[in-house]
């Protein structure tokens, strides 16, 4: 479904990520793991069109996305939930969800689906997004992304700023989404959590793909265990 | 006293209508359009020229509104594109410089071609008594139009999908792009809307007295003050600030003197920046 080939991107002419090749198949959950500053966010921003690619290409279902503006890529079916969430703070929770379906009016079934996934959001639909707790804001960001019925959902550090218990709940919700057939691409520093939901993973280091494999393979890999799982 | 306050409200609604076109553009992209007053004057001159051909006032007004909306689209697709390519301080500075340039060009051309140009849409009939105060029909018409525009804008931004999209850009542009909104298209539409609003200002301003070709910079100044006090990008804020400033203006003119009013209004804007930088209803 998503193919990234030889992708390079960065800031001020300096590449932060380079020679990135990744593939995500329909219905899969794929994790991009790596430490802070490895280039996960740069990679996601480039796929989403917020950052121009310097080299390489991004293809979704045979359609070239490289160099398309972010709003086009969103409408073509990639929903990106950045770590900073980028909600509309002075609007109600419901308005945020409604805007997720832009430019269409939201259909009731999708709204119900989001409310079923996060019952908390339904309780607070009249509340201003800026007044929600961190966990609720994360739910809203995911909910808003789902409103467009995307082909691929990209989540950057979905557990940022969440207490461990809430992070666990967030990942259970992602597991639920996966069961319903949603294709997921998740960047996460918390490697065990990421591998628990993903089918496959890529390890990003200093802007390059260092390793890739199924979640079991990565989980058993001595290098991964030493660097990311705290196993000596 | 009632008369002074009523006059203040009439003036304030005019201020609000004047400020709203500037505040929307500022909220959407951080550009203060210093040519705004000149756009109003341009509309006035267009209406004046069309009316010279014995065209019905309403049609002439429509021509003025559409003409300036068209000029706004043209400006957006050329100069403003260059401005929006920049970010942060560069964008603000370039925006100020370029719109100031446009202001001088429009002002220069109009005063050269129509040195004594002025638009006066005479509304006849006896004054109407409101709360025992006789009010000129022109002022009442102008206020009704301003209120109608405020209502339409509030409904538009509150209820339509496009209006919500506009507000979303004001609140978080990246978030807006991620849900599939094209900010540069929305900016073009809103710049055209602000041009149309400038046209409406030209009409309402000329209902209670002639709007002359050299009124541009004064209008820009008042629009700036309303934008600062009301809060960037807020329609309700612009009208609320407009009415407050209008009443302050007429009260100070009545009790102190006309000479002091602009200074007091500028003071109110400065005070707003110091005490509540986001304005009355801005965020």
Q: What would your notes on this structure say?
A:
The complex is a heterodimer of chains A (232) and B (283). With 232 residues, chain A is α/β, with parallel strands linked by helices. Chain A has a single domain (27-52, 69-228), classed as 3-Layer(aba) Sandwich (Rossmann fold), CATH 3.40.50. Chain A is built from 10 helices and 10 strands. Chain A has helices at 40-48, 70-75, 93-100, 108-117, 119-123, 134-146, 164-179, 191-197, 215-220, 222-228, and strands at residues 2-11, 14-24, 29-33, 55-60, 63-64, 78-81, 152-156, 183-188, 200-205, 208-214. In chain A, the strands form 2 sheets. Chain A has a 6-stranded mixed beta sheet, sandwiched between helices. A 4-stranded antiparallel beta sheet of chain A has the order 2-1-4-5, covered by helices on one side. In chain A, helix 7 links the parallel strand 7 and strand 8. Chain A is globular and about 45 Å long. Chain B is mostly helical. Chain B has a single domain (2-275), classed as Orthogonal Bundle (ABC transporter involved in vitamin B12 uptake, BtuC). Chain B has 11 helices and 4 strands, in the order H-H-H-H-E-E-E-H-H-H-H-E-H-H-H. Chain B has helices spanning 2-29, 36-52, 57-85, 88-113, 137-159, 161-171, 173-178, 183-205, 216-230, 235-255, 261-275; strands at 118-119, 128-130, 133-135, 211-212. Chain A binds chain B through residues 48-50, 69-72, 74-75, 79-80, 82, 85-91, 95, 98-100, 102-105, 144-145, 148, and chain B through 161-162, 164-165, 167-168, 171-172, 174-183, 283.
């Amino acid at each position: 479904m998503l193919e990234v080939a030889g992708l390079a991107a960065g800031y001020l002419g300096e590449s932060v990520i380079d020679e990135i090749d990744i593939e995500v198949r329909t219905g899969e959950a794929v994790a991009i793991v790596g430490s802070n500053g490895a280039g996960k966010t740069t990679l996601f921003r480039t796929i989403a069109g917020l950052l121009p690619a310097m080299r390489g290409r991004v293809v979704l279902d045979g359609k070239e996305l490289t160099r398309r503006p972010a709003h086009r890529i969103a409408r073509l079916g990639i929903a990106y939930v950045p770590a900073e969430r980028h909600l509309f703070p002075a609007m109600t929770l419901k308005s945020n969800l409604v805007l997720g379906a832009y430019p269409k009016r939201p259909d009731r079934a999708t709204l119900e689906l989001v409310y079923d996934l996060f019952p908390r959001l339904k309780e607070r639909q009249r509340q201003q997004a800026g007044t929600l707790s961190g966990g609720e804001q994360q739910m809203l960001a995911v909910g808003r992304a789902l409103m467009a019925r995307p082909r691929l959902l990209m989540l950057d550090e979905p557990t940022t700023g969440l207490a461990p218990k809430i992070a666990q709940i967030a990942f259970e919700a992602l597991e639920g989404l996966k069961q319903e057939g949603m294709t997921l691409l998740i960047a996460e520093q918390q490697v065990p959590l990421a591998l628990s939901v993903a089918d496959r993973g890529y390890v990003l280091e200093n802007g390059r793909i260092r390793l890739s494999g199924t979640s079991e393979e990565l989980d058993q890999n001595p290098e991964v265990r030493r660097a990311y799982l705290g196993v000596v | 006293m009632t008369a002074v306050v009523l006059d203040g409200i009439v003036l304030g609604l005019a201020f609000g209508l004047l400020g709203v076109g500037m505040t929307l553009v500022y909220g959407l992209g951080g550009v203060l359009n210093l040519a705004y007053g000149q756009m109003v004057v341009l509309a006035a001159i267009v209406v004046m020229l069309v009316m010279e051909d014995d065209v019905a006032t309403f049609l002439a007004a429509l021509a003025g509104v559409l003409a300036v909306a068209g000029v706004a689209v043209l400006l957006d697709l050329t100069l403003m594109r260059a401005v929006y390519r920049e970010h942060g301080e560069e964008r603000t500075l370039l925006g100020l410089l370029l719109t100031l340039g446009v202001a001088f060009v429009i002002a220069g051309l109009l005063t050269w071609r129509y040195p004594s140009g002025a638009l006066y849409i005479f509304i006849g009939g006896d004054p109407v008594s409101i709360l025992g105060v006789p009010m000129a029909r022109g002022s009442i018409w102008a206020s009704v139009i301003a209120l109608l525009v405020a209502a339409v804008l509030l409904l538009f931004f509150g209820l339509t999908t496009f209006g919500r999209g506009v507000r979303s850009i004001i609140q978080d542009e990246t978030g807006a792009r991620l849900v599939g909104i094209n900010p540069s298209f929305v900016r073009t539409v809103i710049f055209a809307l602000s041009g149309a609003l400038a046209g409406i200002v030209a009409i309402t301003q000329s209902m209670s007295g002639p709007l002359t070709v050299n009124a541009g910079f004064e209008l820009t100044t008042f629009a700036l003050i309303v934008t600062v006090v009301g809060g960037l990008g807020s329609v309700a804020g612009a009208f609320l600030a407009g009415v407050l400033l209008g009443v302050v203006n007429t009260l100070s003119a009545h009790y102190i003197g006309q000479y002091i009013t602009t200074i007091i209004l500028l003071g109110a804007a400065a005070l707003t920046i110091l005490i509540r930088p986001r304005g009355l209803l801005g965020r």
